[in-house]
Amino acid sequence: MKSELLYEQPSMLIALALLALMVIGAELGYRLGRRGRRTHNELTHVQITSIQAATLGLLALLLGFTFALALSRFEYRKQMVVQESNAIGTAALRSEFLPVSHDDEVDRLFRRYVEIRLESVLRTGQGSSEREGLDREARQIQRRLWHIANEAAEADPRSIPLGLFTHAMNELIDIKTKRDIAVANHVPESALLLLLGFAVLAAVVLGYGNGLAGRRIPGLTVAYCVVVVLVVALIMDLDHPQQGLARASQQSMIQLQEIMDAKGR
What we know:
Elements: H1 11-36, H2 42-94, H3 103-122, H4 129-155, H5 160-184, H6 189-213, H7 218-239, H8 251-264
Helix pairs in contact: 1-6, 1-7, 2-5, 2-6, 2-7, 3-4, 3-8, 4-5, 6-7
């Protein structure tokens, strides 16, 4: 899997670094504005004010679009958890159509499969060796269940219930791939880098405008930087599927695990 620098770092670290860069940029812009104050006439001041407003407006637009993109992907991940738990539960129920001789093995495989899917999301990092090992085991379980279904279908090729189980297994396999892609799919790193860079540029422009005005209110400048950083931190939090505070609920998978464990007792 392609390595991306931003997604390998804690969101809090990125937020603190952005805040520091924005405050430094605002201070640098203020000092530059103070130096250039005497060289600019009134018309130039108006033009710079217009540029300042346009820059801040464009930053707000970028923040809004990026937030909407991250939120939509977060909501999609939540939906995929429910869809996968439903697919596994349906396949497990239809496995009762299989010959009795496979009951114990199939129940054990489904319980282990749910355990793997939960563990891979809750306890392993994206692209880690632990995640890859769990994915390999999940594929092995899929192949074994598919093999059992094929054996049963060969013994009774006209069985409609076995056809339903085969269809459920196909859905289970497909939904795993879709969910894995949903977890790995996030806002492009280039878009986040552009957003971070533009936030720093906006702070510089804001400081420059304050310098031209000849005075500033440090508290308001810092408050503006903090608000921007909080929005960026929220975007990063939504887009880090296994870090931070905003995590897709795994409750449906946990409930499915509890049902299967109760059935296996």
